[in-house]
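Lab notebook, bench 4. We co-purified these components, and the gel suggests they stay together. Before we commit to crystallization screens, I want a quick structural picture of the whole thing.
Request: model the full complex, all chains together.
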Amino acid sequence: MSKRMPPLTALRAFETAARHMSFQNAAAELNVTPAALSFQIKSLEEHLGAPLFVRGNRSVRLTEAGRVLAPGTKDGFEALGAAWRAAYRVNDHASLTVTAGPAFTATWLAPRLYSFARAHPDIELRLSAGLGLVDLTRTEVDVAIRFGYGPDPPELYSEKLLDDWVTPMMTPEMARRHPTRASLSTAPLIHQEDIDFLDPPCDWPAWFRAAGLAPRDWTGQRFSQADHAIDATLSGAGVVLARVSFATRFLAEGRLVAPFRPALRTLAHYRFLCARGSETRPQIAAFRHWLVEQVAQAADHESDHDLIDPHDVHIT
Amino acid sequence: MSKRMPPLTALRAFETAARHMSFQNAAAELNVTPAALSFQIKSLEEHLGAPLFVRGNRSVRLTEAGRVLAPGTKDGFEALGAAWRAAYRVNDHASLTVTAGPAFTATWLAPRLYSFARAHPDIELRLSAGLGLVDLTRTEVDVAIRFGYGPDPPELYSEKLLDDWVTPMMTPEMARRHPTRASLSTAPLIHQEDIDFLDPPCDWPAWFRAAGLAPRDWTGQRFSQADHAIDATLSGAGVVLARVSFATRFLAEGRLVAPFRPALRTLAHYRFLCARGSETRPQIAAFRHWLVEQVAQAADHESDHDLIDPHDVHIT
DNA sequence: CATTTCGGTTAAGTATCACTTGAGTGAAGG
DNA sequence: CCTTCACTCAAGTGATACTTAACCGAAATG
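Here is the predicted assembly.
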């Protein structure tokens, strides 16, 4: 009959029993005798002042109160278990889990994995591709690489990795029809709106201004998602002002070309993120160091083939 | 050095210590001596194989591992505590927490609260206005009243409360300028798009068809949110086809009028929801019964002043 | 600079509680 | 009808969580 927390072992006994819907199996899982488990449940029910299970003769059913208690206890013990495993992994200097967006993982990270494995053969690197914003202080992910801008969250260690740029892209076929920068004045434009919120804006009017071309009509298809805009471009619908990082794959395959300067630097960039304090853990430090190295190499490489012109840019 | 779960009491000791950042205070909270707490933490660290606190001489700091473990254990014990309190409340037949949307709470529920208090003076009714979809099986909310359509979630008990209707509404001034149904053919229309997904559709074309009026051009302002559309209507921008439940307040105040039939019934409706099984708990049953009663009375009342014409409707 | 104070630690002793054993119960199932 | 199975009960035991009391070292105090 107490509102105070019951003994935790009794709660765990209940959680296990509710999960198995059997005292027998629950007792087996906890490595105790059924009698012990029965007693624990009973003491919990005394604490609560009401039964949690209806004892059928060869089975048990949850009561209303039991049904309310079960999901919460399950959540609770799962959280505790996850936390414990996460803490345990801190001492494990042999593995490292990194999450990044699918595009970045596939086009940037995966091809370089062998290089990392060679440099750090003792570290097992696990990749987790996904856009969901994982909570680095609460999950088993050590490092996140995310694209974004704005102030760094204070509870995280953050380091800028890569700038990103937007530049006109089109199919080679489209490029033949519009061989000069000026000919873009008549090309069908594809607008991708999820980068418009950036400041300075990285949209077509901004690019025309930066290119020294006269403003034109800004009609054309508008997409709110980058991959849709690139899909449309791939199908020959027009010329898109796309983020280089999203399109590297298609540029490399020759399905898209980016013949015209300037490229506009977006304010947003790729960032290395980990829980503040964990940047000194050996595997994380090693990975960060390696990443920065790779970024530097890649930058050299890219300025070679003149895809991007860093000098031409920076509208304010 | 074990990956197995540590003793739960030790985990709780750690959680409390991490929250207070002081063994002394943590011991006080748990009603034990500092020595006991110190020992618990020590045993936990042995289990983990690494220290969780750095012992400064008059203070403690978390280690890396401690920083990883702390938030998860906090979450876990909070979940357990919430679950326990929720289970405890099941036996508490004296209070009842209900969540509903802000509009429904303000215009429908709140004015009738006194009636409920008179009918059930022993039940303390708590209201929680908000649109967030609370999880009735995991939180301390007993009952939700939500607007929606589609199949009922299987883990919930669900009962239809109120149909909703859409009918043309405008300011009295606008109604003077458009005194007949037919005159709506030239009135400025306001479109509210969040009800279009309903099947059968409840948009202006459907209403004109149901009214036996000729189709017209469907230009006019379009809003994705109902309150914006009603705001525009209130400012005299045109005639809106709005859900009655959203506008009752303005209709009652005379700021809007709804002179023209028919009213179209939407497929969506207000529903009473609670965790399956808990519909038999006395306060919940009492509240449900009272709600149904109130709904019946309101229906009588509304058909009085001829706001809605249930016979005229049902396009398929 | 000595002294106090405070927060944490250690070690030994103790009370509690979680568990086991073994017998018991009542209904489902052959 | 008798067996079996899942849970319960009571008594005894062992682990564990806790207390007491002494100890330690740095920060605060005079």
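Chain B touches chain A through 44 residues (CB under 8 Å). Worth comparing against the SEC data before the next meeting. The CA atoms of residues 105 and 182 of chain B lie 36 Å apart.
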